[in-house]
Amino acid sequence: MRAAAARVPAVAIVLALPATVVAARNAGRIGRIVDQAVVDRHLRSLTAVLATDRLGAEGFAAVHVLRTATEVDLVRIERVPTG
Predict the structure, then answer these.
(1) Neighbours of 25 (CB within 10 A)
(2) 35-67 pLDDT, tens per residue?
(3) Which three-class secondary structure string do you get for the chain?
(4) pTM for this prediction
(5) Within 10 A of 5 (CB to CB), how many other CB atoms are there?
(6) Up-side HSE of residue 43: CA atoms within 13 Å toward CB?
(7) Does residue 74 carry a pLDDT above 90?
(8) How far apart are CA 28 and CA 10, in angstroms?
(9) Torsion of CA 61, 25, 74, 42, to 10 degrees
(10) How many other C-beta atoms are found inside a 10 Å radius of the C-beta of residue 17?
């Protein structure tokens, strides 16, 4: 909504990593590790969302799904001024 109000495109970047990668990165967090039951619930929900076009229906100009740790490690995000 905020992007639409500002008349700029909203882009979704989805981290759809394998459960083993998510678990390893969660275990390596400093400070607060998320309970595995919460992680599992999130991964199930994410799988269900990606099986549909719900993100596209939300009005995103683009949806980018990163499925591997390598893709996440290599991604670069660049903001391009409009107007």
Answers:
(1) 14
(2) 999 999 999 999 999 999 888 888 888 999 999
(3) CHHHHHCCCCEEEEECCCHHHHHHHHHCCCCCCCCHHHHHHHHHHHHHHHCCCHHHHCCCCEEEEECCHHHHHHCCCCCCCCC
(4) 0.80
(5) 7
(6) 16
(7) yes
(8) 31
(9) -20
(10) 19
